[in-house]
Amino acid sequence: MPKSIYEEIFEDLKSKIETQEYKYETLLPSENDLTKIYNCSRNTLRRAISKLTSMGYTQPIHGRGVHIIYTKQKQKDCFYALNSLEGLHQAAKEQGSSVTNNVITFTEMVVDAHLAEKSGFEENTEVFFIQRLRSVDGVAKMIDNTLLRKDLVPNLTENTLKGSLFQYIEKEAGMTIQTVKRRVTIERTTPFDEKYLCLDGYNCLAVITSHVYNTDGIQFEFTISRNRPDLFVFDTVVSRNS
Question: Residue 153's CB: how many other CB atoms inside 10 A?
Answer without folding.
Answer: 20
